[in-house]
Structure formats: structure tokens, C-alpha cells
Amino acid sequence: MIAQDVERPEKRESIFDRAAHLEERFLTEIPHVARLCDELKVEKRRVDIGDCELYVEDEGQGTPLLLINGGPGGTHHCFHPWFSRAKDFARVIYYDQRGCGLSDYAPGKDGYSVDQAVADIEALRKALGLERWVVLGYSYGGFLAQYYATKYPESFAGLILLGASPGMWTQMKPTRQYDFLAKEERTRIREVYAQAQKLAGERKWEPEKTLALQVYNAHLNGDWKRQHFYRPSSEDLARGALYEWNYDSVHNFRGGISGSMDKINLTGAFEKCPIPTLILEGKWDLTWNTDKPGIIAGNHPGAKLVLFENAGHGIYDEEPGRLFTVLKDFMVQLREAKAFDATPYKAYLKGWDQKQKATSLYIVRTSSYGTASLAKIAQAYSRTWCDDLQDWPMWLFKVGAAHYDCKNYAEAFYVFGRLADAAQKKNDNEQKALAVLWQGQMLDLLGRRDEAVRLYQMVADLNMNETWQHSNYGLKYELSPYARERITKPFVRIENKLKD
Fold first, then answer.
1. Which string of b and e fits 295-307 if b means at least 16 CB within 10 Å?
2. Of 109, 169, 360, 499, which has fewest CB within 10 angstroms of its CB?
3. What is 3-174+254-348's CATH number?
4. Tell me: the pLDDT tens digits for 333-389?
5. Phi, psi of 99 (to 5 degrees)
């Protein structure tokens, strides 16, 4: 019997059991299990979208439902066999993103990026001859689905966000991923990753094999608890390791995607969104904290939020019965609803985009540490930025660095002072020590040596050995030892080596 026709058993080990299962040795082979794609009755093909081919699967009839998997670096395989349930009320479309799974590993001229990923989704819609579709984004795929909606809202019939990354620059509570891992499990998982790297070097494994063995061994030793509510079976763990994480490591797929994703802030993007939206959240999705469902729902004021009590990050494999009932109801409502006009929303998005790009947070966060970027920051800066950025100490440091780069030492001293204040409010003593240290360096450059020594002494007395590195200046140091060195030897200006 195929797994999608079976509910989870009444009694199954969950994170609440807090049971620690430790393997004595690192397993160098993963038990062979077949791809579920080969067992399911799905249509498989490769679709040409212009400059590469994407692997696509199809099953069912009715309103098209595109599934976007998580990652970056995951594959469509995570949705099998669960989403075969949806074939009774939708045409389910699975695909692997460019650079992942069974699709072409073909970075564009600028490498991999989320803009390219979104353009690929739209190209796929056109290649399949579809007018509109419902788009379901899971985890990182939820970010892609939302970003896609801001670029091509007219292509949507509906939007479903399942355990989705918010894509927002907002303060959130810390992750809960390690809340149910025992100390010995966390230790063993670190050992697993170290063993994998050591063996990969000795045996010259391909990156794909190393990654699969890391994932498999880590999950056997409890790492499943970070994203699952119920413990997966050994067969599920093997399938996940073999087929759910395959990506182009040669061309830095994950680095390119993550770097471009970090420059996008979707806060406020959906205030006027006409796309019918459904948000699905697992109560025990430990990827985030308890505030996350409210935060993402608050960014989609017209959406419906459904919370699943006994589910983690996936939901579809932990509360499948309820999930697919909710999905069916949503899809039926969409069929009965009138098509919306995306034109007013596109006008709203244009103004929203211009407004957010003028904010201090956007300017600072999307700029590099190169000389040209820091000069632009210093030129656009006003002191109100320090108020705007006080909840983001790491970006205040970049503003201080911009003034240092442009020899505005007095203003740099002021900004680093605001950084010290912000760090103190957050009880971040390490960041505060860094800020005070840089204040001392600015005083040295201003010829106020006695005041500089007093600040250096404050950092030296903290006996903090945390290491900081500023590669653009060729600086790497431990906080207190470096401060002691500056007490006896004044700071001398160092030029920025990063040009952009």
C-alpha cells in the first residue's frame, strides 16, 4: 500500500519523548531505497525554459498547483508520496529548481540567484501553456513563492505558504531547533560532520556523497528533531539523504542563492495583495520560534492562517489528513471565486519598492564593504540612521566603517558610540567591546591619545578573547589582547583592500 493512503499510527516517537539514539560508528553506506518517483504514477519530463531544462512531474487534473520545495538546495522529492493526495482536486506539478536535483546544473552569467529562480518559474508556466496557477511554497520555497508574487502577480490564482521563510527583515525570537536535542546528541552530530569531512578527504568522495552521508548519519543521531515532530523511519531518512538534497556545489549554488536572498525584504509587500493566500504553520516548527506564524500572517493581512498542533516543519508528512482537507477546501473556493485584476497591486508594488529602497536599512544591508559602497553610505547618511538601525547593531558597524573609510573620524566615533549603546541594550558585551575598541581607534586618528588609551584599557580589562575579522582591512584579532597592544602602540590608518 502506498504511504499517502495511510495516516500516522497513534503511538509514534515524537520530540516530546526526548529519547536519545546514538550510533556508535559513522555509517559509510546508505541503505538503498528506490526513488518514490519511480513507484508513483506521475508523468515525468524535461521542460526547456530557454537556457536550460527543468525536470518536471505531473499528476492529476484540474487547477494547476505548483509545488516549490525548500532549501536552498532541496529537491521536489520531499513532497513524495504525500502530495499525490492532491491529484483528486488539482493538477499537481512538481519540479526541481535550476542547479538542483534532476534539473540542469546551469548557472546564469551572474551565477545562481533568486531573481533567476523566479524568472525560471515564470518561464516554466509559459512553457507548460498555463494562464494562472496556484503556487505552494515550502520553507525556502515559501520565500521564492512570495518573491515570485511580487514580480508576476498576474500569473497567480492562489498562494499557499507552508512553513514558509518570511523573507522579512524583522526582529524574531531565536530558533528552537536545538530545544529537544540532548547534549550527547549535539556532541555526536558535530562529530558526525567532522568525521564526514575527514573521510571525504581520505577517500576522495564526491561532494554529493559527503553531503548525503552527513545528513543520514546526523539524522540517525537525533538531528531529525530540528525539523520533524515525529521521528522518521529509517527508510524515510535514507530517502531524504539520497534524494532530497542534491545541488550544484561546484558553482556555489547555495552561496549564490543565499547571498541574493539576503538583499530582499518583503516587509509590507502584501498589504494590498489581491491573491487569495493560505498560510500553513506547524506549532512545533522549530526552525523558528512561536512568534513566526503571527509575523508572516501580519505581512499578509488578507490571508487565512491555519495552525497544526502535531506538526513540525513539514506538516504534509505529519498531519496529512487535515492538511489535504484544508488544501482541498482552499482549491475549491478558488474555483468558485472571480479572477482578480493584478494591475492596481502592481502599481502598489512599484511604490513599495521605491520606498523601501530609500530606507537606511536597505541601503546599508544591500551594500558591500568595498570602497565605493562605503562611500555611498557615508554620502547618503544622516544621524537619524543611528535611531533607525539601533535594533540592527551589525549594520551600525558598517555605517561607522563607512565614515572611517572616508576619513570622517569624528562621525565614525559618534556612530561607534551609538553601536556601543545598542549593544548594551541587547546585553551583547562582545559587540559593545568591539564598538568601544573602534571608538578608541578613531580617537587615535583624531590625535586624542589619552582618551583612546582609556577606552582601550576598558576593553583590555574585560579579558575577552573572541576573534573578530575585517577582511577588507586585513584585520584579524582577539578583542582584549588587541586592545592591550593598542595601549602601547597607537592605531595607524589601514586602507580598505576591497574595491567595488
1. bbbebbeebebbe
2. 109
3. 3.40.50.1820
4. 998 888 899 999 999 999 999 999 999 999 999 999 999 999 999 999 999 999 999
5. 85, 5
